[in-house]
Amino acid sequence: MTTHAVVIAGGGPTGLMLAGELALARVDVAIVERRASQDLAGSRAGGLHSRTLEVLDQRGIADRFIAQGKIAQVAGFAMNPLDISDFPTRHNYGLALWQEGIERILAAWVGELEVPLYRGREVTGFAQDDTGVDVELSDGRSLRAKYLVGCDGGRSLIRKKAGIDFPGWEPSTSYLIAEVELTSEPEWGIRRDDKGIHGLSRLEDGKRVRVVSTEQHVKQGDEPTLGDLREALIAVYGTDYGVHNVTWLSRFTDTTRQAASYRERRVLLAGDAAHVHSPAGGQGLNLGVQDAVNLGWKLAQVVNGTSPESLLDTYQAERHPIGARVLKSTMAQTALNRGDERTKALRETLSDLLRMDEPRKRYAGMMSGLDIRYDLGTGHPLLGRRMPDLDLVTANGPRRVFTLLHDARPVLLNLGEPGALDIAPWAERVQRLDARYAGVWELPVLGEVAAPTAVLIRPDGHVAWVGDGTDQGLRDALTTWFGPPNCCWGEGCGSLMPESSAGPDANDTGGRGSHKE
Is the pTM higher than 0.85? Predict the structure, then answer.
């Protein structure tokens, strides 16, 4: 049996991002992926929102994506464009880039981090106990892990086998999406009717056509036929345009569900395994990548023995409400995209509202992910929000905030008196930097906020503590997020804490390099 600290089921964007996060923390992580290569049929998801670009920038890899994509204003709500070019972020735009390109870049990064991938096989079952999970693979091999993370999509076997409920709403509509050739010239662009939105557009090669069409009757199952596609086209356009040479054909619906829990003991869920919804607004891939960045550093600290297992509870507490908000948003957009006269009147009314500055900012902040705030209590507006990527002045020259997060390590940024804020007990876990910043502190949607004297930044870029000239609350924040002082929850800590508070896996640090056959 091969042993890893963490096994990830699924090598799509969420699984790849999570693997990279864990590898940066020197956790022995492996991916199990059913595809034999990173090849992906069809164009699938088509873009990255601003906050996702910021997350990638925090790891020093955003430029890889920008070089292969097209910068554009991609945020929108129910087909109403939402311009974020005036938002206070270095990435005040989105990126048009198909999922296959996104995955290839992430896979290359994960390869540089030397994460093993078990390709051409999938998880068929698992059994967990108090110290780990035995994972069964389709080729007969078994893996042993301290934790198993299901990033295996909306039909997640991991979620089902873990017994996690997946409540929600059945589909109200179904769509066909295809890449084809047509014999006759079609009506290009978007069309609405009482069933929803339909569209025909040229692909990059200038020969093939991308078709998106709502079906007249709700159907389920991801293996539609050419006959289904012809039927859908005729119902909308009165002709099938001589459709032929179908290189990709798939069906999706607006089924909307969310896992009741993102964790069942040593099994966790992320991405579509935790939530499925309509693709309206392009939220799914971005939501999954951000799930991974929230979970990765927390799981790493538990595995590496610096934090108790209870830290994983904050993953559910923080990400479940964000997922629920996306579900609500996509349900609303699906309803608004229908073409009957009453819905048209509602959509036009909403369009008028979204042309106003404040509603535009509020919805743009939500759709771009820039307004996310985790509930870390009351206090400064920065608390729980993304840290702005400020241009700092330090003793060693200029630094951007995001460059401090490239290794996915927390940062205490001291902007007050140099040498203040002693964090010696956490010195090996938390970077400390004295710096100056003379500019305005501004947050998306909220606008200008008071300048703090210090901020404690988590590896995911969210602010865990804000200083007001004193260190009040700092030690509590450090302990909550990065473990107790001068102690760990792994090997050798028994003499430093009461036996009753000893964390799980006390004799196994689970650090990277522990892989064994």
Answer: yes
